[in-house]
Structures are given as C-alpha cells and as structure tokens.
Amino acid sequence: MIKSIPEEISKSINLLEKAEKSSEISNILPNFRKGSEQLSEYLECYPDSTYKTLIENVRQCHLRVLITNLPSLNIATFEDWLVFYLVICNQNICLEKVLKDNPSVNEIWDEFCENPLRKEAFEYLRKEHSIDMEN
C-alpha cells in the first residue's frame, strides 16, 4: 500500500492491482470497476486535487494492462464479452488516450471488438433492450 497518498486512492489502486493480477473473470471485473469508480468519485469530490495526474496515470496504466490481458482470458460467453466491453468503454477518455498512445493495445482492442461474440451481444441488446450499439 502506498502511504504518501490519501487512503481512498491507495485502496483504489489496490483494487486495480487485484484485478490486474487475477486470471478469473469473476475477480477482474468487480475489482477493476470498483477501483476505477472510487478514483472517479475521489476526483469528483476533489476536482483540484494535486493527485489528479497520478489518478489519470493509474487509470490509464491499469486499463492498458486489462486490455493487454484480454487474449489470455477465457471469455466464452457473450455476457462475459459484453460486460468486459461495457466496463472498458465506460473508461471513455482514458480509453481513447490508451488506444491512441499504444498501437499494440489498440490492435488487441480491435481484435476483442471483432470477436464473434460481439455480434451475438449486440443482437441481444437490440432485441432485449432496444439498444443499437453499432449506429
């Protein structure tokens, strides 16, 4: 645990590190999501924080690692694929920067997005929730 930063940030980083080290989908997503959400909440409470750059760098680093690890994960169902897709896309500006700055990560992300499960997931969203993610 990093001691020179606020406890909220340190706990968030620990969650992101747990996600990074896990190979179980059931552990990766909750830890990544919670760690990322806590960092966002910290920035909402302290928008002028001296830790803003640190938080942005931590989020980008862990997002990059999460995407880099995608090929080694066993994402066998469209539900798992969709949850990963939505969690990663929820990182919006951070995702754009990570993909722009890291061509190899961009390639992994493109392959993930072209997974055959994608079509099934998008079809499910269209039918069940009237969401069209391709337009």
What are the salient characteristics of this protein?
135 residues; mainly alpha; 7 helices; globular
Describe the structure.
The model has no long low-confidence stretch (mean pLDDT 86). The protein has one domain (7-129). The chain has helices at residues 7-21, 25-45, 52-69, 78-89, 92-101, 103-113, 116-129. The longest helix is centred in the first third of the chain and has 21 residues, at 25-45. The chain contains 7 helices and no strands. It is globular. With 135 residues, the protein is mostly helical.
H-E string: HHHHHHH
Extract low-pLDDT stretches: none
Can you tell me the overall shape?
globular
Largest β-sheet summary: none
Provide the number of structural domains. Answer: 1
Which strand-content bin applies to the residues?
under 5%
Structural class: mainly alpha
What is the averaged pLDDT score? 86
Please report the number of helical segments: 7
Helical coverage, percent range: over 70%
Number of strands: 0
| Distance from first to last alpha carbon | 43 Å
C-alpha-based Rg, rounded: 16 Å
